[in-house]
From TrEMBL:
Keyword Protein biosynthesis set for record: no
Domain of life: Bacteria
A biological process from GO: carbohydrate derivative biosynthetic process
Keyword Repressor among record annotations: no
Taxonomic path: Bacteria, Bacillati, Actinomycetota, Actinomycetes, Micromonosporales
Keywords attached to this entry: Glycosyltransferase, Transferase
Protein name, per record: GDP-mannose-dependent alpha-(1-6)-phosphatidylinositol dimannoside mannosyltransferase
GO molecular function: glycosyltransferase activity
Span of domain Glycosyl transferase family: 197-339
Domain Glycosyltransferase subfamily 4-like N-terminal: 17-179
InterPro entries tied to this protein: Glyco_trans_1, Glyco_trans_4-like_N, Glycosyltransferase_grp1
């Protein structure tokens, strides 16, 4: 049976990362499965086009200050009219800020709805202190009450809903393009550009914004060199902290790349690195880290995030000592650590993720959390 699956998302733009990747891969999968996916996102101006992920409609939306250009959908009347016109069979919402009302819209029309939690609201609001935690619980309570199902990609992401009593949770991990992100993308010329043969090449690949804590990667490079490790760091990404990070890195062996739009170029960089650092403490899944593993490159991650669930034993999870995590990874023979990284990534694929998401869409609202068994127990992989 063909369903029209209308998907809504905020904070998507040409230079956005994981969410944009996930939306595209899921849309392509829905289309290949015979469904009719329609994605609605904010942008500078209106557009409506057919793409590889189905129909994509862009509605004008304002830029959120201090986010580096991210936009949101706020014109409720216009969006509601468009939703009525589209008459979806299923509604999938990747947002919990300005779009929460769409859950009620769907319920009033008998349309099954799924809210996909791609970010940790509790984590984002920790920057506001204790009051932020109170607001996160309040807003999360409204979110899980608005939709038939809340889909989380890791147990870590589901925890902020579980602790406030949400019962309509399911868990489905995301995937990775195992053909695009592959060890064969190793590029000797790229490596020669940034590092000598005897040097350790570290890579930070991600948005340069406060919640991602990119300064920790630079601190790790400085600490490693102070301990006599001949390492260099390549920072690939863009964002509001770029100028500040360049100042922090002045005088150190740090190279900043411009935003890398071409996915094959990203894969080449990840495959060529010796170690990738993913220091974000509130990552709910971490697609960039999984892409690095698929390229055969181990990853050092923040132990307090969801990433230990994803990387398993194919890297290191640390609390603050990212330099120590890099050293831990480097003690393992290169062939075995690269094989372990690739093997772990092969447990995740986009076809499996698409099947999981479609199973949620085709199921009645759940009464209890469903935990996907593929993810690792974080306590088994965290190191001091």
């Amino acid at each position: 049976m063909t369903d029209r699956i209308v998907r809504l998302a905020n904070f998507v733009m040409p230079r956005s990362g994981g969410l944009r990747t996930a939306l595209r891969a899921l849309g392509e999968g829905y289309l290949a499965a015979g469904h009719e996916p329609v994605l609605i996102v904010p942008g500078e101006r209106y557009s409506d086009e057919q793409t590889s992920q189905g129909r994509v409609i862009t509605l004008p939306g304002p830029v959120v200050p201090f986010t580096g250009g991210y936009r949101v959908l706020i014109h409720r009347r216009r969006l509601a009219a468009l939703l009525d016109e589209l008459a979806p069979d299923r509604l999938e919402v990747s947002d919990r800020f300005t779009l929460r009302w769409t859950g009620r819209w769907a319920r009033e029309r008998g349309i099954p709805s799924v809210m996909v939690s791609h970010e940790s609201l509790a984590g984002l609001l920790t920057f506001a202190g204790r009051l932020g935690s109170v607001w996160a619980d309040h807003l999360n309570s409204r979110s899980f009450g608005a939709y038939d199902t809340v889909l989380c990609t890791t147990s870590w992401a589901a925890a902020e809903f579980r602790r406030i009593g949400a019962q309509n949770l399911v868990q489905v991990p995301l995937g990775v393009d195992l053909d695009l992100f592959h060890p064969c993308r190793y590029d000797a010329a790229l490596r020669d550009r940034y590092a000598r043969p005897e040097q350790t090449l570290l890579v930070h690949c991600g948005r340069l914004s406060q919640e991602k804590r990119p300064e920790r990667s630079i601190e790790a490079l400085v600490a490693l060199r102070a301990q006599g490790v001949d390492a260099v760091l390549v920072v690939a990404g863009d964002g509001p902290l770029r100028a500040r990070l360049q100042e922090q890195a002045r005088g150190h062996a740090v190279h900043f790349m411009e935003f890398v739009a071409e996915r094959t170029a990203v894969a080449a960089l990840l495959a060529t690195a010796d170690v990738v650092i993913a220091p974000g403490p509130i990552e709910t899944f971490g697609l960039a880290a999984l892409e690095a593993l698929a390229c055969g490159t181990p990853v050092v991650v923040d132990a307090t995030s969801a990433l230990p669930e994803v990387i398993g034993k194919a890297g290191a999870a640390v609390h603050d000592d990212f330099a120590g995590g890099v050293l831990q990874v480097l003690t393992r023979p290169d062939p075995s650590r690269r094989a372990a990284a690739r093997s772990r990534a092969e447990e995740f694929s986009w076809p499996a993720a698409v099947s999981g998401f479609l199973a949620v869409h085709n199921s009645p609202p759940v009464a209890a959390p469903v935990v996907a068994p593929v993810l690792e127990d974080p306590s088994a992989v965290t190191v001091p």
